[in-house]
Amino acid sequence: MECHVYYEGDDDPDKCTARRLERFDEAVLHRSMRQVPYGVVLNPHAEQALSPADAAEGLETLVALDCSWESAEAAAFRMNGVHRALPFLVAANPVNYGRPFRLTTVEALAAACCIFDRYDRAEELLEPFRWGETFLTLNEEPLRRYSECSDSSEVVAVQDDYLAGE
């Protein structure tokens, strides 16, 4: 599964997970939106949740936007592709540990891989990070449940059940 990142460069380079992914040859960084290939764009503002159906449609390219959460507005996600939002997950990174929906770029890409039932790829992406395994552990149940869904509406239903404690 190919991972591509549109890199805005507006956060701390020492804490940037996208730059570390690039150093480990796990993702390709693009500094121009025109260079970003067509794929599944992980967009928190998307109207439809990511589901295994997206991978079943042959969309094997994941695209993330690496920017500060302060600038992660809808307009920042103007990339071509199929835009999907990740369902409820909790961050494991040191800056946003335990906060829902405040994932780093690597956490978002790894979560998408898990939802596509590519846990091996998620582990590869998270391996360079001390807290990488923690992300998978914290989100083990919802990621497993999301990966068993057939479409976006099922993912939303599972998310609602999970948040209700069922």
Automatic annotation (TrEMBL):
UniProt KW rRNA processing keyword: yes
Entry's Gene Ontology BP terms: enzyme-directed rRNA pseudouridine synthesis
Keywords noted in UniProt: Cytoplasm, Ribosome biogenesis, rRNA processing, S-adenosyl-L-methionine, Transferase
Subcellular location: Cytoplasm
GO terms under cellular component: cytoplasm
Binding site for S-adenosyl-L-methionine: T17, L65, L86, T105
Keyword DNA damage on entry: no
Superkingdom in the source lineage: Archaea
Residue intervals passing through the bilayer: none
Chief subcellular location: cytoplasm
Catalytic activity: an N(1)-methylpseudouridine in rRNA + S-adenosyl-L-methionine = N(1)-methyl-N(3)-[(3S)-3-amino-3-carboxypropyl]pseudouridine in rRNA + S-methyl-5'-thioadenosine + H(+)
GO molecular function: rRNA small subunit aminocarboxypropyltransferase activity; S-adenosyl-L-methionine binding
Domain RNase L inhibitor RLI-like possible metal-binding: 3-32
Domain 16S/18S rRNA aminocarboxypropyltransferase Tsr3 C-terminal: 40-163
EC number annotated for this UniProt entry: 2.5.1.157
Free-text function comment from the UniProt entry: Aminocarboxypropyltransferase that catalyzes the aminocarboxypropyl transfer on pseudouridine corresponding to position 914 in M.jannaschii 16S rRNA. It constitutes the last step in biosynthesis of the hypermodified N1-methyl-N3-(3-amino-3-carboxypropyl) pseudouridine (m1acp3-Psi).
Protein family (similarity comment): Belongs to the TDD superfamily. TSR3 family.
HAMAP family in alphabetical order: TSR3
Protein name: 16S rRNA aminocarboxypropyltransferase
Organism placement in taxonomy: Archaea, Methanobacteriati, Methanobacteriota, Stenosarchaea group, Halobacteria
